[in-house]
Specification:
about 50% helix
Length: about 300
């Protein structure tokens, strides 16, 4: 304690402390404040739009419209990866426009079109009757398919579908004509009674003498050959000309011989083999009935 009576040596001793004194507290120096860290150079901040990856490209690439489509480097990289995968196979550029014939030919060839129209290969159904399939029409279709760039598979599918449809229509028409003829025969036989055979014979004789091929074809295609009106008309013509040398026709048909019937059955089986032995054939039932009718004649039924 400093006070009265202190000597020169003792005066102010309370203001001094021994550094070795464990109880003495050393003054604490203030820690200087840390300076704020400077942002790293050229490091973009997320979302602030300050980084443009295109600026690191050469002017020629940077100004290319293709590059301008990509807003981010990530988007550009994804597009490049997808393009690399796409170009891994053989790629054919699309034609420039409708008038780019060379481009279309290249495109068609890559799609499977044959080298020429006659290179298309088509199969004709085995069940098609003789004269049904017209090669001239087939060649016209080949030319059309080639001009429109159809591949072999496309042309084959169209061809087969069309031929199948036409064959079914043809068979249905033949069945309808056969049934119509049978119905006309029943009706005319009922109307004429015992004179039926003679009337039909006179009508057919007149037809064979005066009707041209065109008339016969029209009577067949339209079904008028089954119309009693036309049958009576030709029968009357036959009546007027009976006895003249220009008209030759039997008064009544003769009964077929057994060997003729057997030959007819064999011929019918050979001509209609596919339909007779394929239950899925559209004309199967019809041909089976016809064959049964022939066999009945063999037994005199």
């Amino acid at each position: 304690m400093s006070g009265e009576g202190d000597t020169l040596l003792t005066e102010g001793l309370d203001d001094y402390k021994d550094e070795g004194d464990p109880g003495a507290e050393a003054p604490v120096a203030e820690k200087p404040a840390e300076a704020p860290a400077a942002p790293k150079a050229d490091e973009p901040k997320a979302g602030d739009g300050t980084f443009d990856w295109r600026q690191h490209l050469s002017p020629e690439l940077r100004d290319d419209p293709t590059i301008g489509k990509y807003d981010t480097l990530d988007g550009f990289a994804k597009s490049h990866v997808n393009l690399s995968k796409l170009l891994g196979g053989d790629k054919v550029p699309k034609p420039r426009d409708e008038n780019d014939q060379e481009g279309w030919d290249r495109w068609y060839a890559a799609s499977g079109r044959p080298e020429s129209a006659d290179k298309y290969e088509f199969e004709v159904p085995a069940s098609a009757p003789e004269g049904f399939y017209q090669e001239e029409a087939s060649q016209s279709f080949r030319n059309w398919a080639f001009a429109n760039g159809l591949s072999q598979k496309q042309a084959q599918n169209l061809h087969d579908s069309f031929v199948k449809d036409q064959l079914e229509r043809y068979v249905q028409g033949q069945v309808a004509m056969t049934e119509a003829k049978a119905e006309a025969e029943r009706n005319y036989r009922r109307a004429k009674g015992s004179t039926y055979e003679a009337e039909v014979a006179k009508a057919r004789a007149a037809m064979s003498t005066f009707a041209t091929e065109e008339v016969r074809a029209k009577l067949t295609s339209t079904g008028l050959g089954n119309d009693p009106v036309f049958i009576d008309m030709f029968a009357r013509i036959g009546d007027r000309l009976v006895g003249e040398s220009r008209l030759r026709g039997p008064s009544a048909p003769t009964a077929p011989m057994p060997e003729d019937i057997e030959r007819s059955i064999a011929d019918y089986r050979a001509r209609n083999h596919a339909a007779l032995y394929d239950s899925n054939h559209p004309a199967h039932d019809h041909h089976v009935k016809e064959l049964w009718s022939l066999t009945q004649k063999r037994h005199g039924a």
